[in-house]
Design goal:
Fumarase C, Chain A, domain 2; elongated; two-stranded antiparallel sheet; mainly alpha; 3 domains
Length: 484
Amino acid sequence: MRFAPEYVACVLNENFEDAKNELLAPLMAIQYAHLVMLANQQIVSAADAHAIRLALDGISQSDIRQVRYDGSYEDLFFYVERLIIDGCGEDVAGRLHTARSRNDIDMAMYRMRQRDCLLDLLGASLELRRVLIELAGRHRYTVLVLHTHTQRAQPSTVAHYLLAVIEQLERDGQRLQAAYLRTNHNPLGACAITGTGFPIDRNRTSALLGFNGPLRNTYGSIATADYLLESASASAVLLAGLGRVVQDLLLWSTSEFSYLRLGDGFVQGSSIMPQKRNPVALEHARAIGSKALGQAQAVMTSVHNTPFGDIVDTEDDLQPLVFGMFRDAGRMVTLVAAAMRTAEFDAARLEARAADGWATLTELADTLVREHNLPFRLAHGISARLMTAREQQPTRPLEELLADVSAAELPSPVTYTRDELAQILSPRHFVDVRRTWGGPAPDETLDALAASQRQLDADVLWSQGTRDALAEAERALTAAAAAL
């Protein structure tokens, strides 16, 4: 078949390059697994299986990756098939394609490559969690004022903030694991769309390729893309959530805030301004993450409103976008983890700023409720009027102002000494009394950190166990093929 030069240049060449870089290893594993199954089921004779196995053994993946597309074959599958024919002859080589199609081969390749991508992204997120847990552990007592609507709101701690990020990443991990479980099912045996009349064993190929089992419906094995969309969605949620955190980190790195300082290896200077110390690693992380998020959205768009069946929209042209999304997502997460491993928080500055702007005024209202049995709304109003009175009379003692504004609302004024009022309004006191489960009090963050460490240990164990299962399947496939 002769292909038009425009089709070669715009489609076939691009697809061949993508396939040999991303899909060659799973394609070769599928060749071996299918051959073992055919031999086990006596669909192919032992002699022919042996000859095909020797032909497969003679194929060098590194050599294939150096090949330039010349238009004499349609895609990577047919190029490899030609190598098998060269190795054992056309009559014998042709038996390998019994009870299969490029359709189910392609879908198996995509799922095998995607499961590796999911594990890699999960691994990067696990490392980020480890870094943040260690960082939070060093800052359980470091007071930090948190913001709502971009305005200073209430004091908390660095650990409390980071634990919110960690818990978000834990949920990201659950989403990635769930996406892996739904990705890791075997479409092989579906053939074009309806399966085959040969007595194949879909469970055998599933086990040899590390799948949890075969997909049940043969048409759905080829037609569905929900596994792909779920993986893109889980990645997009991670990217969007982490991007919001990076935005905070960049703000805190400004000279106006000076809360956070990255290690020298993650900043750049200026070609003209000697004083500059630019936290460009986090800027790159934000840009790379935005790129990956755009790719995830493009995956959704590419699949949207396509027919429910075998269609190129979900195949050769889409898969590089999927792999690019995962690669860039991993780059972002890895970069943030590395940068935060070197991060230093200015504890003294953070605590000083936490006392500004009446950020602890809620605690005064709470104290009036607890100690004077006032309705919260009344206590809230007294506290607000105290703030207004201080603005109008900045030199007058605060305890006198409180007595005046409370006397206007109550039968008798609220009286505190200067030291008592200072204690009520101190950022550290504000944090210490907030022992709500999940709150910022150091004892609570200690418990939360322990829980997050246990969850991290469990997720690392799941990830390693999953990788070990894939490695064991690969060893079993190698042994089974060698025995042919």
